[in-house]
Amino acid sequence: MANPRMSAAQRRASQVGKAKHSTRFNALLKQVDQDEALPIEAALARVKELATAKFDETVDVAIALGVDPRHGDQVVRGTVNLPHGTGRSRRVAVFARGDKADEARAAGADEVGAEDLVERIQKGWTGWTQFDLFVASPDMMPLVGRVGSVLKQKMPNPKAGTVTPNVASVVRDIKGASRAEYRVERAGIIHCPIGKASFTADQLAENLLILIAALIKAKPSAAKGRYLKGITVSPSMGPGVRIDTTLAQKAAERI
């Protein structure tokens, strides 16, 4: 089972078998008490100190939920608009016709098409892999279904908010980097970016609390017992810092 205390860098290393952490990472790890759970603001201030890479690292959060995703009625999935955005610029393609297609282009979609776009993908066009997200208007789904086996996880999905009559609004959210998608993994953990290390601790805290509030609202009725089991934040190239889950939940419930 995945460990919610692991940062993105730690997870990547664990997936490579014998891969070892760098000297830099190990030095940072010594600065973190793995058994200490901090208030949100203190934890995020610590994460900013740990973000010492030569680029603006993404700040990620891992949230362990008391659900069993093997059961369909305990899958937690959705989207949330973060007040300060994620800091990530993403490419988006849209399946739409007519006015919807024009609206998507005006909103900043990187690619817009209907039968023509589906046909290109069917014929082996690899350019589709360069898009982070695909959005579709509901009337397009019978057509888009033809390439579902190709798009796989990137397939437009109503639960992810990427099948919508309001394609322009969704495209603007995605291109504006305010929209974050979350989906519980097999181990019951959600991983999600909440901003960049260059953000202030207050901005990161606001984003995180909005995400936690969304997860609380999305709690499946079939989930029993403790729902928020653990929260860890980390820079993309550094170790994780634990957050006091009880304090975080109380703060999120006040939103």
Structure description:
It is a single chain. By secondary structure, this protein is of the alpha/beta class. It folds into two domains: 8-86 and 180-253, Ribulose 1,5 Bisphosphate Carboxylase/Oxygenase; 92-175, 3-Layer(aba) Sandwich (Rossmann fold). Helix content is 33%, strand content 20%. It has ten helices and ten strands. The chain has helices at residues 8-14, 23-29, 40-50, 98-106, 115-122, 141-144, 148-151, 167-175, 201-217, 245-253; strands at 37-38, 58-65, 77-81, 92-95, 111-113, 133-136, 179-183, 189-196, 228-235, 241-243. Strands 1-10-9-2-8 form a five-stranded mixed sheet. Helix 4 (98-106) packs parallel to helix 8. The longest helix has 17 residues, at 201-217. The protein is globular. The two termini are 32 Å apart. Mean pLDDT is 90; it is low at 12-19.
Structural features:
Ribulose 1,5 Bisphosphate Carboxylase/Oxygenase; five-stranded mixed sheet; three-stranded parallel sheet; 2 domains; Rossmann fold; 255 residues; 33% helix; alpha/beta
